[in-house]
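Q: Is it fine to ask for two folds in a single conversation?
A: Yes, each is treated on its own. Send the first.
Q: Here.
A: Result:
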Amino acid sequence: MLGQTILHYKILEKLGEGGMGVVYKAHDTKLDRIVALKFLPLHLTANDAEKARFMQEARAAATLNHPHVCTIYRIDEYDGQQFIEMECIDGETLRRKIPIQKTDDALNYAIQIGEALQEAHSKGIVHRDIKADNIMVNAKNQIKVMDFGLAKLKGSLKLTKTSSTVGTLAYMAPEQIQGGEVDARSDIFSFGIVLFEMLTGKTPFHGEHEAAVMYSIVNEEPDSILKFKPDISPEIDRIIQRSLEKDPEDRYQHVDDMVSELRRSQKKSTRVIRPSTSGVSAIHTSSVENKTAPIPSSSSKKKFMFLGIAAVILIAAAAWFYFFSGHQQAVDSLAVLPFENVGGSQDLDYLSDGVTESLINNLTKIQGLRVIPRTAVFRFKGKNVDIYEAGSKLNVRAILTGKIVSRGSALDVQVDLIDVKNESQLWGNHYQSDLNNLLTLQDQITTEVSSKLGIGVSTETQQNLTKRATDNTQAYQLYLQGRYYWNKRSAVSIENAINYFKQAIALDSNYALAYAGMADCYMIQSQYSGIPTKITVPLARQFAQRALQINNSLAEAHTTLAFSYFSEWKYDDAEREFKQAIALNPRYPTVYHWYNILLARTGRIDEASVVIKQAYDLDSYSPVITLNVGAIDLFKKNYEEALQYFQKSIQLEPSFAPGYEFSGIASMGLKRDQDALAQFQKSVELSGRSSEALSYLGYFYGKTGKREEALKLLEENEKRYRDGTGSAYNIAAIYEGLGEKDKTLEWLDRDVQDQSTWTTDLLTDRRWEDIRTDPRFVVLLKKVGLVK
């Protein structure tokens, strides 16, 4: 655009670019002045609803006329793209001045920021994204707060990582992170963080990774500013601490109260320097936004055109004759094979996988219909499948197949229902739609498939089949992407899943399934990334509770909440939630799987054996459920039987690292050390040298006299522990292999102090056999609540 003239603006230079658009310095030839033009990304204003929302927000912001607010002159459009003409600031971001050496200078800036917020809040405008990057300091040392009215477009949970903290996240109020209501008091919390950062160069809530920062903001008390600046007035520390209260009710209720106290504090400790607020020159721009992946725009719902009346009558008549005239038995069992992404990029696999999983979940609601779970059917993904062979292996009456062809946003979908027994097609249909109508498309497919099964589906069930968790198609697509990455089960993929679920929540703050997805991610994140469970488990619980506040009938969220309670040694609460989840959805395999873990690890082995077999009956193709069936035999020292299940779990998923770990333990029980070594080494390779896998191999090395090799892995795991990517439990296991009982118990005690979820395995982990009678070990069992 440089050198071009757009309307009556001559573009002079590019000033910055970020998640909220590109900013150019321009000459307004009509009024002969230098301005900044901010062009909004197309995805924020791509449809009428979003455009109207943007105009409403921007117009509200344009009413602000205050010396410490960047002035918006007008809103316009060029070549279909919205842009804002605003004051161009000659200066730099506050970020570049941090830390501010003189307390008086920091307080001057803080008072000006507070005055800007006072003006906005008095007009009902909440910024939602106050941070050092959104605040400019001009050439006259005056504060200019940028981007009022734009933060809402970004959504309250859209985050951007940086090297040591997490962009916008580091400034968020607890209620923003938890998806609650955001109001002026949320700005006050962020303002308090900015003040803390101005004075110290640090933010009050820390973490090596995103989960740790979130946990810190929601659960931990902030550092006192006196820790970093002991000579500062305790009054300033008190003001900051009050602004950072977790509960909005305990913070300043109005920013003018905070500003008033800052002024009083300044008068007591320093000379009062009232900044001049006259005149503004121009050359620089607003902050460059932290770059985040764009969220697709939401679109208004459109309804499909149904077939002509004559065609409907013919289809209905044919279906009646086919299903109810005695020529066709009802379909009582069904497998939905993974829909094929035809000719599309791998980036669209989330779509074909998501449609498949959604249809499975919807059709499972039909009474009298056995639907094969996801783990079983996804074995066939990407393979040349013989439909009838697959139907025979899965033991179902019918198979549903589909192909999706994506051309830009346009979708062509072919769906076929195949009778496996009679080797004939029961029904098929071709749909033409687009991504904006994905929810409607799925509803139509679900409705038509259910009507072709020959099962009497009640009106209530039919309505339940297409009951939506969200009406926002873009949020739904982001949710599908989250589930796609969650199912990949790796440290990186879980982090990707969390980011997608957050973006879905940003578009629909009442999307219960997206909160449940967040809970599921944090529930398993420690196992794959090594992040301490004392950080991840409380986050899992909080998001599960938020999902249930919205929809208390979600068995998945009750299951995750139950496992979070179990991980925190609240066994009665966990069992209550597990039982409620089973009552809500007795066909959900994971609830039996996780309930079995509680029963087994608290010594109720016989009950656990019954429950895990219920999970296995529902989903015998799940590697982790198969593994847990074998775990019961392992506990009973039935090594051969256990090994068969562990090997089957590996056959089901060759990259399943825990399958190799458990195979190694069973092989050790059978005195097959060479087999055990190969299994443990494979686990380390597949897991990316996870703390857990290293502990198994290190334990083996210690037990078999390879002390030097064990010590190397011990050193690696101790470093992981110091870095926050490993547990004390996994260090203790290597010491136990080396026969160093005191060190073993010392590290296990540290794991208990860390409130690690690993400690719930003290009764069942075979590696502790030699120290189970030690009084110190019994004390640990009592602390964890595993014995009375």
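Q: Second one now.
A: Result:
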Amino acid sequence: MSLEGTRTVRDLSGFSMLELFRLEADTQTATLSAAVLAIEDVPRSPGMVESMMRAAHSLKGAARIVGLEPAVRVAHAMEDVFVAAGQGRFGIRSDHADILLDAIDFLASIGRADDALMAESPWVARADTLVSRFVAMLEHATGDDVGNTSTAASTPPAAVPPQARPRADAGAASPAAPVTVATSAEAADPDAARPPAPRTFDTVDRVVRVSADSLTRLVGLAGESLVEARQLRPFVDAFLSLRSAQVDLCDALAMLVDRSQAGDSPVPETLAALIGTARERADAILADMIAHSDDFESFARRNEDLSQRLHHEVIVSRMRPLADGIRGFPRMVRDVARSLGKQVRLDVRGEQTGVDRDILDHLEAPLSHLVRNAIDHGIEAPELRGRVGKPPGGTIVLEARHRAGMLHITITDDGSGIDVDQVRRQAVGRGLVSAPVADRLTEAEVLDFLFLPGFSTKEQVTEISGRGVGLDVVQSMMKAVGGSVRIASTPGRQTVFTLQLPITMSVIRALLVDIGGDPYAFPLTRIDQIVSLDSDDVRTVEGRQYFDRDGAAIGLVLAAEILEVSCPQPPPAPISVVVISDRGQRFGMIVDAFLGERDLEVRPLDRRLGRIPDISSVSLLENGDPVLIVDVEDLVRSIDSVLLGRRLSRLEFSRLTEHSRRRRRILVVDDSITVRELERQLLQARGFVVDVAVDGLDGWNALRGGHYDLVVTDVDMPRLDGIGLVTLIRRDPTRRSLPVVIVSYKDREEDRMRGLEAGADRYLTKSSFHDETFLHTIIDLAGEPET
């Protein structure tokens, strides 16, 4: 049978009836949710109401087939509402939308539940409640007589899918503030708000189930194939070089033949014959070489092109549209805005932008938090917006696009913006920075404080915000996938969060640099800027080198020193500097040279190597040479350790080891550079040898690599908090007796008991710095500094 003109049909032969119902429920509930949320913008749109009616009817029939009577009844009652709305006898308002969305959630959940087929399950009671609400909704329609709604409880309905939860609308005047959601297309064309017809199985591409691990291995093999194909290029260049040399040889022989034939200088006949034969032979070899080199170059080009297309296709197979990760956002915006008494419009642009599935899995939580944050912190209440000349409804724009080989996602709200002075005061008040230093910080540097753990500008804690854990989590998730996040704000007008991520986790765009004669790669998402400096641009303050950029002083360090790479020659002029930052700390790394940008295939390090400081992964260049990809977050910690004197070079370590053994060693663990430095100075002034760590995980790594007589730790820290660090110490047989002192701002009794129960020997508040309590406690547990 000819297949011409037929459409590819999804193979569903291996699905059970219940699996088919769940599949349809996913599709139909998504359609219903989108339509309910959009109906306020397009009141009584005949096409939209008809699509809702079809979806409810389809769900009713599917639920009847698999015997889900509660779903049948709810879907049928919902269908009655849509029929009445389609006939003009009933207008769907915002309060009606709440009931409809509850019913859609019910149908979605019953489709996923394992006990949905049990007659005694709680689904029956919930279905009764929903059906009663639908009947009451129709009976109280203004002046309308809905004929056969009384039969809603007895007539079976159709099956519905769960999942997407878009937004509600009102066909008539809405007493509640409407929350609208639109895509970029809908903003230009109201008809675009009409939900698309459900995608039927005869229009979908044929699907084959492939495990994620298998797909990851396939991506790796495709990347290796591309690298191998690119390694043919040096052979092609060598072949062309040989051909050029052969051309020169042929030209030289031709000149000899011409001179011998000219008779200017007598050449023996035998030698002339040999030269002529050599010329003929060289010409023949050149002709063969040209033919073979052209063939080889063509083969190499086709092979690289084929490998490139294969690699691209495999990468595309890992891509999913951004829309797959934000399906619930319209409903979330509606619910949060209504709970806060605000009017909000969500405008999604670039929702079909491709995102690596591994990155997309990590994106939903940070994007959700940023959107909720914009509703709560950014968008003002309608009356406040009216006072400053803004429309009562605020707008949040979520936009995604590919640019310069990276994925850029921006979340913009037209709210009140961020009060930079308030953030500055908060930072000073919490002891994160001194007032004189805070006054010199740029706006971008001040806004970076918002990403610190526990930092919040909101005085009251609510269910939505105020605990100061959100933006820290956003930044951590971005770093987990090799991305970054930045804030920009215009007071009274808008706030913009910009997320920059790799398009795929298997391939990154990186800057190659030369350090000590070897190539290293910096992911572009983690680079603030690259600069070239003259020696006059570098100034020295208290033995440390800095340069000024945009009004800020940026410390300079030698990359070779941080990475412990031998570098016999000083960096050439002009000085090449890569500026990196993490959690408010910013440094310029001096490298030997910039080697340009590359798309690199990311390969994990062999597990047998263990953890390599400052290195995250490895890749191969076109010529097959390996290149190490740096871990910027770890690198910043290493720079901080070197500048504070915790990490010593091999020579310094050997020289000081014997002396250090005669003195008490203390490890100070705190994410606040101010507190960390204060504790270090207090302890060093009393004769202790002090090392510092920037968080619990850094502290644990330091403990495993050295000997200490006591640990001083904070509680609230990123990656691993103080309680977790104490727990690890007490579980380690070789370190369980190590004294640990917790020093925290928290002074409640329950906080103190929590620290002591975890195994800390003492729990002090940071007010102990003002008297001798802190030092007396350290000496009591660790002994006198000199031994």
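Q: Anything structural to flag on that second result?
A: Two points. The CA atoms of residues 250 and 282 lie 6 Å apart. Residues 1-14, 142-204, 646-661 have pLDDT under 50 and may be disordered.
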